[in-house]
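Appendix B. One record, verbatim.
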Amino acid sequence: DECDELFDYICDFYCEVIEKTIDLYNPDIFTLTDDTAAWNNPFVSLDMMQHFFVPRYKRLADYAHERNIPVTLHNCGKCEIFMDDMVNVVGICGWNPAQNCNDLAAIKKKFGNRLVLTGCINSSQTFEKPGITEDEIREIVWDVANNYAPGGGFAFQVHFIMPDPNDQYMIWKSNTVNDIMDEVSHEFYKK
């Protein structure tokens, strides 16, 4: 009971903030942000998610739905078990970073272009790898595009961890990844 009261209190607070700001800002997209999972497992069970989180996420998302604003979810980690509720109950239409610790092929197959998968790349295992070449980057980006872009419902996104903002090699990699994603996007959708 105390947990429900706490979750209601937090949700009530955010509902009040949204009520006072959503029409003022008139956003193009409304994003729920929560990390409910680590790389290997969710932090909470499906039952706990359905009891504590989903109804409150829906309350928040409904402000956007009432205004025909698309709702997306930022949720890192292995949270695929929650996607049915997030899409069918909460009403999200996009998920980032859609990390590849999840069975993204199954999620893509299940939801098609009803759920935009954003990312689908684990940059720490790919782009942040020392010595990666431009050709390797191009191959990774094309693989991701070929796996997730057909039929729509996909957007490129990569997060880099750059401990030193002056690291010229990481800057080169970041710029190269972005350039190749742009190049692949244009080429892929010409097909």
